[in-house]
Structures are given as structure tokens and as C-alpha cells.
Design a protein that fits this description.
The protein is an all-beta fold. It is built from no helices and 15 strands. Strands 3, 4, 6, 7 and 8 form a 5-stranded antiparallel beta sheet that branches. A 3-stranded antiparallel beta sheet has the order 1-2-5, with no helix packed on it. It has a 3-stranded antiparallel beta sheet with strand order 13-14-15, with no helix packed on it. The two termini are 39 Å apart. About 16% of the residues have low confidence.
Length: 144
């Protein structure tokens, strides 16, 4: 699903889903759903209101064959370009705390979190990855 921002509207478009007779478009202000509409095509134009004109809104689309046979919602797309796309950067410039970590293949992905004043490094040892933390105050390392 993609979106294009207009002056007074935001237009969503998506690929058709096999057997879908209609699509449910949900509009979110933060985590609160503020609207829902049903469309039969593969695009929807949201018109801003006085309450939503300068807000960051999220949109999801769910394909369904009928009211009881519904698919899963799409990923959320936002009406601002930067929040709806992943940002890929390497190397990690700052350590993170309260983050989620996912590994796939030989890559390590850190999602979310806050800046942390502790240095983290990773080394491979006999096909097992060990994570070492260094305390910047006293220089001590701890395996995690």
C-alpha cells in the first residue's frame, strides 16, 4: 500500500487481493481509530477535516470477501513520508536501551529503544555470538 499527500487530502492505493469483494480502510490518530470506511476499488481518498488537517494520521487496509470472511490488516502507512518507511543505517552510532533485537542470517537488527551511555559490541566465537558490554565509567566488560 502506498499513499500520496495532496493539499487537502491523502490518497491510498494498493494491489487487489484475490477473492476480495471490498476493502476496509481504517484511519488512526495515534493509537486511536478515528474512522473506518468500506471501498470496493483499490484506492481511497481521505479528505482532511478541521480536526485532522495538521495531524499525523495512520491508515490500514483490510481485504474482505464479506463481513465474516476478513483478511489481516496491512501495515500502517502514515500521511508523512518519514514515519511510514524503515530507515536503514550502519554502523549503529549509539548504544540503545529498552530496544528489541532480532537476528536473521548473520545480521543483527535493533528496533526502537532509547540512547544508552553504555558501549555494546558483538564478537563471534565458535559460531556462537557473544555480546560484551563495556561500562564507560570504569572500563569493565560484562558478557551478556
Amino acid at each position: 500500500m502506498t499513499g500520496i499527500k495532496g493539499q487537502d487530502s491523502y490518497t491510498l492505493t494498493w494491489q487487489p487481493v484475490e477473492h476480495a469483494k471490498e476493502y476496509v480502510v481504517c484511519i488512526y490518530d495515534g493509537s486511536r481509530k478515528i474512522g473506518e470506511t468500506i471501498v470496493t476499488g483499490t484506492s481511497y481518498e481521505y479528505l482532511y477535516t478541521n480536526d485532522t488537517v495538521r495531524k499525523t494520521l495512520g491508515f490500514t487496509v483490510t481485504a474482505r470477501e464479506n463481513k465474516t470472511l476478513t483478511g489481516e490488516a496491512s501495515r500502517m502507512v502514515y500521511n508523512t513520508a518519514s514515519q511510514s518507511e524503515w530507515v536503514y543505517q550502519t554502523p549503529m552510532e549509539k548504544s540503545r536501551k529498552n530496544a528489541s533485537v532480532v537476528t536473521t542470517g548473520e545480521k543483527l537488527y535493533v528496533l526502537g529503544g532509547e540512547n544508552k551511555p553504555v558501549q555494546v559490541r558483538m564478537q563471534q566465537h565458535s559460531s556462537i555470538f557473544m555480546y560484551l558490554m563495556r561500562n564507560p565509567k570504569n572500563g569493565q566488560q560484562k558478557q551478556i
